[in-house]
Every structure is written in structure tokens, then in C-alpha cells.
Amino acid sequence: MAKRLFIFLTLLAVAAMFFDFASHFRPADKLSPLAEHYVAEGPQELGAANLVTAVVVTYRGLDTLGEVTVLFLSAAGVGLLLAGRRKREDAEPQEDLHPSSELVQTAVQFLLPIAMLFGVYIFVNGHLTPGGGFQGGAVIASGTLLLFLALPNAKLHHGIMGELESFSGFGYVLVGLLGIFLAGGFLDNRFLPLGDFGRLLSAGAMPLIYVLIGLKVGTELSVVLERFKGE
Amino acid sequence: MTIELLIALLLCAGILTGGVLAVVLHGTVSAIIAAGLASLFAAVLYVLLAAPDVAMTEASIGSGLATVIFLYAVNRTRRYGDDSDD
Amino acid sequence: MTISVATLALGTGLLLMLIGLWGLLAQRNLIRLILGFSLLDTGIHIVMVSIGYVTGGTAPIIDAAVDPAQAVHTVVDPIPSALVLTAIVIGLGITAVMLSFAIRIHDRKKTLSIEDCTESKG
Q: Which of the two residues, C1 and B54, has the higher pLDDT score?
């Protein structure tokens, strides 16, 4: 009972702090000065139609590199925590996961390439339409999930996944370094021609960076899913 | 009251219902589904707030992959039958 | 104070944060605790996106529907969107690490209740 009272009082105190914040909240009717600069200058400066992509990939590109690092570390942590636990459990009988019905298997054979293609479409068009490397990578991981639903005992080829992940991570840093030597600074996208505004091959290195992020996120999330699925 | 505000009101009600259910429901699996539902309503709310990039991320990661990871974790922690959730 | 979509979303986000905090404090099952954490996460994201919303604004994508010269007055703030986008992905990574710790604890102790993890208390 005392515990419930304590929880109630804590929530009440936090709610009081939130209420103070919420009662002073006015919906903005114009952009902040920084956002105004990004919106006014971004399209000419970087050649990207999607300004969120311009902020994620170039203006705040270093944050995104750090974020991809965090994701890599968490994937490595999951691998470390969940790998090799089977060896200790010699007492547990290994039961195979139930195979799914033929209907699901046939549907997945048809849908899997389309899902993967859709993921690639999302991250290739990241600088033009909503979406980008993170969303596209998540869609690719959903494709992997479809595969696991149809064939619960399927295994990913860890050699290929590891190579792909290292290649895309290395490529991301390499593109960032090329920005230092050929353009204005780390992760500057203007060492490639900006091209025509609104075309697929435009916005300098931005599509290249998002493709690399998409591959990296897709492989990492797929490996995390496989680890959680277990044997 | 505009139609946009009405939709936002319904979505907010859906988010809060999902959130409360995720805490009070007895079964862990039902709670996970309720949290996924709250996340899905939040994704639609982001579209109303003119943030389609966030909406896509929330729909695919927040309500898709996160729910699946939770369900896999439940599956792996009740293999011995010593947990009392349904 | 008039009710708008932004204020409604802000209130919902703050309430969802409270619900998540309630889950964190009240639950005893590790997976339910992590679920409360993820609700708290979602609430914070809703609050941040609603702060970036500009009344009557459209998505910050310059295409046929948005005149580039007038874009400053018609689009919403892209910075909170970018922040929340990365925060969601990091949230998934953190959730995955927490859940794998929960699985390991269950492997070792055959239970998910934090009452049985007393030796880790300080």
C-alpha cells in the first residue's frame, strides 16, 4: 500500500512539472531562425528536396554517424548477450520451431523480393520523398522477418551480412572524409555535382550516403531479429 | 471543430487507451499488442503533424520491429512454462 | 487557450510519458518494465514533434505543391523531425539490448521478476 502511495505521489509531482510546461506552450506560427535558414537555403545549397534528409544527412551528419555507431554497438551487444547461450543448456531438449503452412510459404516467396525492392526504393529516393536509409533499412528487416515467419529455421549467411555491414560503415566514413578533401568539411555532400533539383541523381553525395545507411541499418536489424528468434 | 481536429482527438484517445492497456492488462502478450497499437496511432498522428518521415519510421520500427522483438523475447523467456502469463 | 492539433498532441505525449513512468514504477516483470520504457519513449517523440509543428504548415519537402520562394512560411520545422527520426532508431537499439539482458537473466534465474534479483541492489 505504501508503495502505491509512493508511485501516486511521484506521478503527481512529475505531472505538476509537465503541467507547468504545457500551460506555457503556444503552438509555433513561424519557424525558428535556424530552421528558417535550413528551409530557405537548403534547396539551393545542398540540392535536396526533402529538407529532413538535408538535416539528417548533411547539416547534422555527424549526429547521424554517431547514431549509426550506437545502432552498431547495440547490435553487437545483442549478439554478445544472446550468442552461445545454447551451449550451456545441454539439459534442454532442442525442439524445432514449427514450420508454417504452405500458404504462408508460397506468399512469402512472392512477397519477399517485392518487400526488399520496396526497401531499396525508399532509401534510394530518400532525398526526394519521405523516407530514407533508416526507414528503408527497417523495411528490408521486415522482409527478413517475413522469411523467418515462413521458414522458422532459416539462417542468415553471417559472412555476407558482416561483409555488407563493414563495407557500408566503412563507405559512410570514407564518403565523409572525401567531403573534407573535395568540399567544405566532414560529410559535405557537394563533392559530387548537385545535378538538377528534384531528379534521382541529384543532391551530390546525399543518395550515396543514404544507400550506405540503408544497407547498414537493414543488415544490423536483420541480424538482431535473427538473434532474438533463436535457434 | 474542424475534421482535422476531430481525427486528432480520436487518434489521441486511441494512443492513450493503448498506453493504459499496455500497463494494466494482465497478459504480457496482450500488453505488447496494446503498446504496438498506441505506436501505430502515434504514426498516424505524425502524418497530421506534417512529419511523414517520422511517421514512416514510427510505423515500421516503433510499431513493427519493436513489437516483434518483444514477442520474440516473451517466446524465449517462457519456454520452460514457469511464467504465469497467458 | 484554443485547442489545436499541436496542443492536443503535446498533451497526449505528456500523458503517455506519465503512463510509461507509471508502468516503470508499478510493474515487477522485466519485460513489462521495458514495455513501460518504450511507452515513455513514444511519449517523448510525440512531444518533440508537436513542438516542431507550425500551425497550418505542410511537410518540409520542396515539390510541386510547395513554392520554393514561399517555403519559409508554409512548411513545418524539419529539425525536430530529424531528431525524432534518429531517436526512434536508437530507441529500438536500446530496447533490443535491454530485452537481451532480460533473456539472459531469465536463462540464469528462470524468472523475470525483479524481486528475485535482489543481490544486484546496492
A: B54
